[in-house]
Fold this protein.
Amino acid sequence: MVHFHTIKRGAHRGLVKYRTIVADPPWPYEEGFATQSRGRTWVGEVTHDKPLPYTAMSLFDIAGLPMAELAEEDCRLFLWTTNRYLPQAIPLAEFWGFEYRQLLVWHKRDGNLGGSVAPNSAEFVVVATKGSPTRISKMPSSVISTAAPKRHSTKPECFLDYVEQVSPGPYVELFARRHRLGWDVWGNESANTAELAV
């Protein structure tokens, strides 16, 4: 179980409020990571025999993240989700005190695993706001089309560039995999992660 009450920036040791929050929570997949048999098509050939390459959180624990303590009065949230958890992601953002605004789609051009009636080649970003955050400009499209990175759960490099074009700082990325200049980050896979006060 993961709990944190504040994110602290470097040596400042004070509570930081953010105008832009990017979150990529570790959604739970009890059945494991979807894999595909080598040389076969995706249809009916996907198995889930590989453990997740990250520590998942329950929906209850994800909902318990202290967004109210992290968000400025005027704040924009970018919440990553998958096809399975899309129905829960919008109510989750609302539970955190944000209002749904738009859905962005990451089209993973070569990510074609599983799916009910079509291959899963997309992830989603729920954009939601609290108060009236400033919008600097607009993204070029609501669809980001790139190849899927080799490492599982890694997001497209251009995404945070787009976020900075649209939304002002201070910035924080929750469940980050690496540090980014000008951002506070929190995540057990990122270097220079922000300190957690538990």
Notes: Helices lie at 59-63, 67-70, 86-95, 158-166. Residues 6-197 form a domain with the Rossmann fold fold (CATH 3.40.50.150). The first helix runs from residue 59 to 63.
